[in-house]
Write a structure and sequence with these properties.
By secondary structure, the protein is mainly beta. Helix content is about 0%, strand content about 60%.
Length: about 120
């Protein structure tokens, strides 16, 4: 069983930056991938970025060149560095992990980008 806790959401002006963190605890040794999804009001939850246990990354096209996902295996933590934010990035961001074929989700953290 895996528990995920996100940090770093908040309010930022367009063009600004935020850094999200997600700390995993519990049975973390079998986690094969971690990442971030986001969900805006009235929209579905979509993948933003993901990173595998060997460091391979994947990004949705709209954030490529602006967002960077990274992983600190010693701390069982992933990060999402978000630069040049725009109002379209406003959403609740959810950390996720895949552990032995099962999906685990954090509680979500609100990111609001003002114009």
């Amino acid at each position: 069983q895996v528990q995920l806790v996100e940090f770093g959401g908040g309010l930022v002006q367009a063009g600004g930056s935020l850094r999200l963190s997600c700390a995993a605890s519990g049975s973390t040794l079998s986690i094969s991938a971690m990442g971030w999804h986001r969900q805006a009001p009235g929209k579905q939850r979509d993948l933003v970025a993901a990173i595998s246990s060997i460091g391979r990354t994947n990004y949705v096209d709209s954030v490529k060149g602006r967002f960077t996902i990274s992983r600190d295996n010693a701390k069982n933590t992933i990060y999402l560095q978000m630069n040049n934010l725009n109002p379209e990035d406003t959403a609740v961001y959810f950390c996720y992990a895949v552990n032995r074929g099962l999906d685990y989700w954090g509680q979500g953290t609100q990111v609001t980008v003002s114009s």
